[in-house]
Amino acid sequence: MFICDCHCDTLTELYKKGTSLYANDQHFDIQRQIALGGGLQFCAIFVPTREFRYYGGLRYTLQLLDKYLQEVKKLHVDGIDVLQVLTKEDAADVLNHKAATLLAIEEGGAIDGSLEALRCLYALGVRAMTLTWSNRNDIADGVNEEGSGGGLTVFGRQVVAEMNKLGMLVDVSHIAPAGFWDVIETSSKPIIATHSNAKALCPHPRNLDDKQILAINENDGLIGVTFAGQFLEHDYNDACIESIYRHIDYMLNIMGNDDHIGFGSDFDGISHPPYNLHGVQDYSAVYEYLSKKYSASTVEKITHKNVLNLLQKVL
Ligand SMILES: [Zn+2]
């Protein structure tokens, strides 16, 4: 079993609590990931938009980025085989390592309205960015602003073009529908919704409707099914591993193939995880459940191959 997971907020917890990426008592750490059989974890720098609505996010981003780099350095010094994914070649090589991480940003306010800052963050290792959180920033409106009908701003279009050019994954989780469709139209490369589920099963504004799911399929992109209880079930108390399966199965059926679905747990960022899933260690139960439902080839694709393929196309 090798698990690629497109979203977690573990870095925020590590930064605030001074804990370690290798071993901690949060939802995710490398030690449990390796014990499980290995995996690639996207580690997002989440920039809180109430504090940094338009500007001021860059300094905070650098503080979390420093924490990530320090933790990666410690893993190397301790001789733990964890690859930091930076290139297509790295993406092709992930399975030859015990574990891997990919540095991401959640909330485009991180770049403080500057394409220069975006390029510098790329140089520091960032390989994916969620354009907005749920509020408005200078790139686009998030889902909380859906009523405005606002899509990508002129600057937002420049950001998508620059991310395409650099080889950075454009993440549409959290963006309002108008912005979603602008990204579909604008992006020259496959996109990703790192942590979103199916709206038809759970009508939360953060989830994707059928047309959006089909558009990501057409775009050759990927949807990371998320474990947040509120995005899995009407009543988050009912969320369980079977709910995760139901969202996966619904999207597979809509798409008519198994090439564009992965995971985006949102570990360490979710207040209500499924009642029978408490952290990265419980991926074994998810794997077991999916193995009873799908062929080995489909399980392989959902658990890691689809994400690694996408990275090889975009980075
Ligand atoms: Zn999120």
Automatic annotation (TrEMBL):
UniProt GO molecular function: metallodipeptidase activity
Highest taxon in the source lineage: Bacteria
InterPro entries per the UniProt record, alphabetical: Metal_Hydrolase (IPR032466), Pept_M19 (IPR008257)
A GO BP entry: proteolysis
Signal peptide start and end residues: none
CDD domains recorded: rDP_like (cd01301)
One Pfam entry name: Peptidase_M19
Protein's UniProt name: Renal dipeptidase family protein
Organism: Phascolarctobacterium succinatutens YIT 12067
Biological classification of the source: Bacteria, Bacillati, Bacillota, Negativicutes, Acidaminococcales
